[in-house]
């Protein structure tokens, strides 16, 4: 088995923990602690309770994993609505 070979499992986020960690229930009924992958953190992809995700796991530690993908269609709409703040600062710059 190669060093970079990871096992991939589908699951559902059951709990959001601090520092970008999540409790995920895999389809095979195992609970794992997972964190968001670098690209998901970089592009600020939000993950909430009930989201369907793909978790990559090392064959050496099956209790922890990395969330590499969040499926779009299964997520509930955000509670705050579609209103977002503008991504710029008000005021003048000189």
Structure description:
The chain has 94 residues and is mainly beta. The protein has a domain at 7-70: Beta Barrel (OB fold (Dihydrolipoamide Acetyltransferase, E2P)). The chain contains 1 helix and 5 strands. It has one helix at residues 38-42; strands at residues 7-17, 21-26, 31-36, 52-58, 61-70. The chain has a 5-stranded mixed β-barrel with strand order 1-2-3-5-4. The N and C termini lie far apart (59 Å).
Low-confidence spans: none
Number of helices: 1
Instruction: State the end-to-end CA separation.
Output: 59 Å
CATH class annotation of the domain at 7-70? Mainly Beta
Tell me the series of helices and strands, N- to C-terminal: EEEHEE
Instruction: Name the helicity range.
Output: under 10%
Question: So, CATH architecture of the domain at 7-70?
Answer: Beta Barrel
Tell me the strand percentage band.
35-45%
Outline the secondary-structure elements.
Layout: E1 7-17, E2 21-26, E3 31-36, H1 38-42, E4 52-58, E5 61-70
Parallel strand pairs: 3-5
Antiparallel strand pairs: 1-2, 1-4, 2-3, 4-5
